[in-house]
Amino acid sequence: MVASMNRSPLHLSLAAAAALLLAACATPAAAPTASVVPSTTPSAAASASAARSAAASATGDADSALMALIRAHSTSYKVSYQFTAAGQTGTGTITQYVKAPYFRQDMAMPGVPTTFSTYVRPEGTFMCGAMTGSPACYSTGAGAATPPEPHGPETLPQDLSGWNIVPSGTKTVAGQTTRCYSFSGAAAAGAQLTGCYTTDGIPLYMMTSAGGAQTEITATSFSKSVADADFTLPYAVQKLPGMP
Predict the structure, then answer these.
(1) Residue 131 has what DSSP assignment?
(2) CA distances (Å), 8 to each of 11, 12, 13, 18, 22, in order?
(3) Which of 45, 142, 226, 232 is most buried when burial is the number of CB atoms within 10 A of its CB?
(4) What is the CATH number of domain 67-239?
(5) With a cut of 50, which residues of the chain have pLDDT below it?
């Protein structure tokens, strides 16, 4: 920032006194030689360029910080989504609960009266719902090797390593301004992925496009408050038919 340099009242008074003294002298004074001081004020173009560079640097730092937060898997949240998919009639709903090392997802499909839930707990993974009559929770026999990661349901990569992640602007979702990214890489297998996150690393919007088919998942509400009770299995545990 270049400071403004104005003459003070004291400078103006001294200049006026000197002018009166020179006028009283019989011998005319020689005209003072003008001195040229190079301007230190940057051009408008240079100022604009510097501002753009500073803004780009700040944005890059914010993107790096957000990616680091997402990779840390440390954000707890509950998000309710609506989703649509190609060939699907109506809108489905998904609610995700994340609080490491626990994870829960409730899904209701259009036209299906039952909500199916998946629970990931340290002792295993469980599918709960009325799948074969009476509601029950079925153990898949798989333990949670790593804490669940804060990612979008069905679409965004669970592990960001190996992906090419490019910022793609912002999007207002559930009343929040989110930062959006496009994901590409060998693991995408030709699909185009977009994900939008809050500054806390909470995914609020996901879109997958592949082979002309598109799935879009948009948050309708979210909270950073998640209780341990949200991960309590609601029914007695049974073995899935055909599982050892």
Answers:
(1) S
(2) 5, 7, 9, 16, 22
(3) 226
(4) 2.50.20.10
(5) 1-40, 51-52, 54-56, 145, 147, 150
